């Protein structure tokens, strides 16, 4: 008997003597694509259609092949198919439901290809017809809600979420997707929360649910009242919030693990061995190429949770027993393969104990630590657009955290000490830090380390001014909290001071190049005012009196940098150019730093002359400083401990619009329904008669 091959909906015998045969479902699709009602000749047409295995490729291809005019001619049949799909969702037979869900996905995607301005038809009218749209969409959303909340098949829930993600992402700009009006009116918010609060559902569908929620929250968020924003902002159920935190932590952990694996693979590879032989001159360039695709979708979900819901802040500090302590289930529930969404989602078994001991501190890890590690990776290389967006979003999230009173309380809590292994960019002039030597410290130290690391490693021609401004703002907000609550943090402040001074030196040495693109005086003023914070209020939050002395020592030791800065801003503030006003602000801000330098330098020179010492040691300089505080006069500067609070709508709307567009395109691109194995589904539903 000749072998039968199946391709593109055709059943073809290997002998070419006979005409190829079409499978039955394809013949039925062809009937729909005529102007006649397919149920006229066969009253059981629709009933039979949903018992047939869906041919997604053929159905989508057929829709895409038609032009707008041809599609309008078969509009009644398309409407009929859409309505019968919705009816089939209420059937008891799961195979019908599965086929209806897959058909809806193909219909929505196929018809949406024609939704261009030149086509002259509306997507809602084409799918359901204006007269029936409200009722049909209400029934669709209610059916999806019931399937998501039911105790039934995990495969059906997976398909429901894929259909919803398909609905949301058919347009690049989700705010132009008019179908979403019906998703706003007929909310599935509670169904999403139920998935996140149940350990089993969360493990199978948590990632899709969180990405879906993040996208829905961004639908016309600045133009109208979005019910998903309102509802997310008031969620206070601990299990639900923890569930959401777990899904986000697992996705970020998976990214961190993949990066660590690639890094180790790179270090043990042939190239690493070769560079060890010839020297380390190329090592920085080589390590820059280690990259794992970033996950903006899950980062957006974290941002929305932190930004909108104050109760979620508590989740950041909660340890995750499921990630580090949970044992692998002995009999895992059979599931269908889940297509990757967003960018790099975790595998479904990501919370098994075998997967997650990423490093020594995983047992005492939490979402904030995982996020800080993720940030330390993506913020290394900001030349790539996705990483630049990810780095910016990481800093925006940290800005929201740094402004929150409760978040600051646990960040600075001496009883909550952690060892956080941040990733450090390989640089020729420094050795790689040994992870084992890291001390346990309050979490705010890791945040400050991350900021210092960014400041030190991004002084380059393509200067990321916006990220630097955010970075300095985060440090400032943390200092404001320490000053207000008199928190004496035992931190290596010298590293921060040194990084800030080096940043000022970089701005000065690249003045001409940078001024062509940026107002560097805004950043310089922020840096100078950080020093003014330490000078004016340092005695209230620096850990010891000697720390305050060390601040003065650093200012005196690096006086040339401050003198050069003063000369530069004085020159520009006395000219009538565009930088006159911003430069003069820096001139005024330097008054106390210059007073310290001008007061102590003569005293140090005098001490050296009297004691016949050509070069003073640090201890000797500190002795001069301590004995001459009394005669130092400083000016009180106002507003050093005040800042403008973060506002998304006024300043970040354009960034989020572009970010959500990018995520929508990515989700749509990775959303493949044909990966759902029909064999697995049939096996799962084999008990059905």
Number of helices: 35
The helix content is 55-70%
Intertermini distance: 32 Å
Largest sheet: 3 strands, antiparallel
Quick one: how many beta strands? 5
Mean pLDDT: 84
Content-based structural category: mainly alpha
Flag low-confidence runs: 1-7, 277-289, 321-344, 347-363
Strand arrangement, largest sheet?
Answer: 1-2-3
Shape: elongated
Report the radius of gyration as a whole number of Å.
31 Å
What portion of the residues fall into strands of 2 or more residues?
under 5%
What's the layout of helices and strands?
Layout: E1 4-7, E2 10-13, E3 21-22, H1 24-32, H2 45-49, H3 56-65, H4 68-73, H5 75-88, H6 94-112, H7 123-127, H8 130-149, H9 154-169, H10 180-185, H11 189-197, H12 199-217, H13 227-234, H14 238-267, H15 270-278, H16 283-288, H17 296-308, H18 313-316, H19 321-324, H20 367-378, H21 385-403, H22 405-411, E4 417-418, E5 441-442, H23 443-457, H24 465-485, H25 493-509, H26 511-515, H27 520-541, H28 545-557, H29 559-574, H30 580-589, H31 591-610, H32 618-626, H33 648-651, H34 653-670, H35 678-684
Antiparallel strand pairs: 1-2, 2-3, 4-5
Describe the overall structure.
The protein is an all-alpha fold and 689 residues long. Helix content is 62%, strand content 2%. A 3-stranded antiparallel beta sheet has the order 1-2-3. The longest helix has 30 residues.
List the defining traits of the structure above.
2% strand, 62% helix, 35 helices, 689 residues, disordered N terminus, mainly alpha, two-stranded antiparallel ribbon, 3-stranded antiparallel sheet, elongated
């Amino acid at each position: 008997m000749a072998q039968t091959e199946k391709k593109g909906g055709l059943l073809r015998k290997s002998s070419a003597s006979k005409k190829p045969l079409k499978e039955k479902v394809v013949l039925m699709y062809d009937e729909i694509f005529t102007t006649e009602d397919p149920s006229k000749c066969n009253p059981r047409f629709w009933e039979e259609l949903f018992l047939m295995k869906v041919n997604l490729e053929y159905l989508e291809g057929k829709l895409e092949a038609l032009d707008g005019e041809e599609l309008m001619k078969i509009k009644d049949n398309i409407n009929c198919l859409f309505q019968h799909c919705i009816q089939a969702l209420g059937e008891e037979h799961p195979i019908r439901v599965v086929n209806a869900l897959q058909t809806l996905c193909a219909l929505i995607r196929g018809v949406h290809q024609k939704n261009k301005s030149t086509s002259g038809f509306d997507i809602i009218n084409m799918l359901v017809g204006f007269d029936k749209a409200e009722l049909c969409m209400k029934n669709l959303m209610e059916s999806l809600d019931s399937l998501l909340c039911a105790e039934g098949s995990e495969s059906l829930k997976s398909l429901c979420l894929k259909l919803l993600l398909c609905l949301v992402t058919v347009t690049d700009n989700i705010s132009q997707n008019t179908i979403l009006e019906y998703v706003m009116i007929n909310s599935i918010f509670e169904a999403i929360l139920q998935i996140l609060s149940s350990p089993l559902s969360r493990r199978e569908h948590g990632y899709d649910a969180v990405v879906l929620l993040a996208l829905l929250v961004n639908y016309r968020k600045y133009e109208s009242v979005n019910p998903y924003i309102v509802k997310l902002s008031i969620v206070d159920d601990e299990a639900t919030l923890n569930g959401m935190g777990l899904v986000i932590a697992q996705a970020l952990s998976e990214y961190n693990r993949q990066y660590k694996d690639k890094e180790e693979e790179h270090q043990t590879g042939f190239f690493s061995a070769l560079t060890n032989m010839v020297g380390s001159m190329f090592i920085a360039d080589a390590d820059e190429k280690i990259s794992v695709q970033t996950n903006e979708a899950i980062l957006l979900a974290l941002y929305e949770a932190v930004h909108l819901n104050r109760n979620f802040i508590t989740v950041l500090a909660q340890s995750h027993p499921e990630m580090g302590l949970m044992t692998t289930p002995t009999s895992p529930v059979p599931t269908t393969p889940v297509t990757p969404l967003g960018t790099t989602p975790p595998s479904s078994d990501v919370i098994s104990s075998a997967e997650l001991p990423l490093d020594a501190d995983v047992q005492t890890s939490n979402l904030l630590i995982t996020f800080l590690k993720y940030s330390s990776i993506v913020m290394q290389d900001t030349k790539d657009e996705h990483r630049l967006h990810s780095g910016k979003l990481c800093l925006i999230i940290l800005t929201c955290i740094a402004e929150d009173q409760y978040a600051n309380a646990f960040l600075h809590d001496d009883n909550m000490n952690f060892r956080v292994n941040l990733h450090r960019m390989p640089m020729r002039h420094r050795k790689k830090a040994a992870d084992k030597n890291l001390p346990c410290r309050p979490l705010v130290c890791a945040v400050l380390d991350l900021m210092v690391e960014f400041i030190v490693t991004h002084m380059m021609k393509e200067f990321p001014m916006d990220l630097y401004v955010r970075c300095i703002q985060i440090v400032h907000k943390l200092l404001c909290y320490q000053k207000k609550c008199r928190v004496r943090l035992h931190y290596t402040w010298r590293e921060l001071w040194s990084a800030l001074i080096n940043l000022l030196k970089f701005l000065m040495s690249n003045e001409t190049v940078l001024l062509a693109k940026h107002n560097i005086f805004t950043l310089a003023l922020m840096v100078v005012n950080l020093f003014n914070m330490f000078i004016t209020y340092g005695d209230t939050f620096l850990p010891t009196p000697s720390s305050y002395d060390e601040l003065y020592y650093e200012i005196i030791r690096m006086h040339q940098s401050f003198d050069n800065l003063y000369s530069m801003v004085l020159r520009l503030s006395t000219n009538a150019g565009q930088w006159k006003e911003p430069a003069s602000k820096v001139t005024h801000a330097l008054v106390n730093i210059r007073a310290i330098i001008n007061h102590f330098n003569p005293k140090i020179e005098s001490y050296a002359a009297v004691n016949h010492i050509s070069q003073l040691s640090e201890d000797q300089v500190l002795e001069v400083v301590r004995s001459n505080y009394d005669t130092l006069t400083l000016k009180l500067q106002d507003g050093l401990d005040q800042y403008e609070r973060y506002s998304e709508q006024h300043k970040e709307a354009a960034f989020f619009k572009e970010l959500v567009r990018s995520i929508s395109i990515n989700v749509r691109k990775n959303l493949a329904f044909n990966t759902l194995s029909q064999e697995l589904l049939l096996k799962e539903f084999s008990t059905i008669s």
